[in-house]
Design goal:
about 400 residues, alpha/beta, Hypothetical protein af1432, five-stranded parallel β-sheet, 5 strands
Length: about 400
């Protein structure tokens, strides 16, 4: 039995949430609170697995409440259910929440969200995973510049000069943006030296995703990594990100899912970077054993570390409070069958993109055909191959 606390100042909505989970009483204990202060009092009295709150409430609003929950009860999964239309305000909520659900919410969406978050929580709270995370020399903090760029992007007039100013203040991010803008995959005939032109060339959502990945790469020391190519990793991540985005677009996915797939594609293997930096000897041993025995790296990692680079990357993104769709796509990119959400999603795109990019590099296929068949997408593979420019 899991416990969920719904917080809303509208009594009718509190009753509605209870009604939505009425048939799930064997799985969920549902409690409600009329505001932030009342919710904190309930949290003092008993433990909860999930808190779902409205954004705008008198007294303590939803973001203030979830900031307190994050500090006092970090193990609780945090959801905002809100009808706000201000995207900058929604972006600000990303600091505090694991999932954002728009009102009016339907029963199917709520149950799917709870299933997804519940599955991820169990996955990311594994003791072996937390033990390895505790051994890391560096666990990158959430990049504030990501939120600043996101808020600038979502503002009504989308001020490019504001985004350019933010990028110029961060030399590492600026270097990555120029590198990607001048890469062969972009195909620009003219060398770009101006960050402003690079932003226009790449698009604002790509720049937002680069802010996350660049921050991670800047957190580590390449000289500590034995026989591990940071450049090769970056190249693979960029290819996967572009491929995942192309797959989502081929299926006419909504914009939010397209960008979630792109961002997850850019971050899915950062666990390798974390292991190579903090545990270089053990990680090198894992690389050698995988190559010698012709087995997937993640299988050897589990034997040596008790966890994998996919789980470690997802653990970091979970700490950052990124949306569950992104975290899920990273966590299960080798094993999509483990997801509670067995439908086409950003996870599908990242899994397929990663498998196809490894195939293109001459490596053994890691594509899960049974998973594709289960979600009814096995016949789309050839079409996706044609869609991906790098293949």
């Amino acid at each position: 039995m899991k416990r969920i606390l719904f917080v809303d100042d509208v009594e009718l909505l509190r009753d509605l949430y209870e009604l939505m989970l009425k048939k799930e009483l064997d799985q969920w204990v549902v409690k409600t609170a009329s505001g932030g202060r009342a919710a904190l009092e309930l949290l003092k009295q008993s433990g909860f697995d999930v808190i779902a709150t409205d954004m705008r409430m008198p007294g303590m609003d939803g973001i203030e409440l979830l900031n307190e929950v994050r500090k006092l009860h970090p193990q609780i999964s945090r959801i905002i259910i809100s009808g706000i239309s201000d995207q900058a305000e929604a972006a600000d909520a990303l600091k505090s929440t694991h999932q954002f659900i728009h009102k009016p919410v339907d029963t199917k969406t709520l149950k799917a969200t709870l299933a997804r978050i519940g599955g991820l929580d169990a996955y990311l709270k594994d003791e072996k995973l937390k033990a390895i995370a505790g051994r890391l020399r560096v666990l990158p903090s959430f990049p504030q510049i990501y939120l600043e760029i996101m808020q600038a992007i979502e503002s009504p007039d989308r001020p490019l000069h504001r985004i350019n100013d933010l990028i110029i203040k961060d030399p590492g991010l600026m270097a990555k943006i120029l590198q990607v803008a001048n890469s062969a995959s972009i195909g620009s005939p003219v060398k770009i030296h101006d960050p402003g032109l690079a932003v226009q060339q790449l698009g604002l959502n790509t720049v937002r995703s680069l802010a996350l990945s660049a921050h991670v790469f800047q957190s580590f020391t390449p000289s500590r990594m034995k026989n591990f190519s940071v450049d090769a990793l970056w190249s693979h991540l960029m290819k996967c990100a572009n491929s995942a985005r192309a797959i989502m677009q081929a299926e006419d996915a909504v914009a939010a899912d397209v960008e979630a797939a792109f961002t997850a594609g850019m971050l899915h293997d950062i666990g390798k970077l974390m292991l190579a930096d903090s545990l270089p000897g053990e990680f090198q041993n894992a690389l050698s054993l995988a190559a010698t025995n012709h087995v997937p790296l993640q299988e050897v990692e589990r034997e040596i570390f008790g966890t994998t680079h996919a789980e470690l990357a997802a653990y970091l993104l979970g700490l950052w409070g990124l949306p569950a769709t992104m975290v899920e796509a990273v966590a299960f990119h080798h094993s999509p069958e483990k997801s509670a959400h067995q439908h086409f999603s950003p996870l599908t795109a990242v899994h397929v993109a990663n498998a196809l990019e490894h195939e293109a590099a001459g490596e053994k296929s890691c594509l899960n055909q049974d998973y594709l068949a289960k979600i009814g997408m096995e016949n789309r593979l050839d079409s996706w191959r044609k869609t991906i420019p790098s293949l």
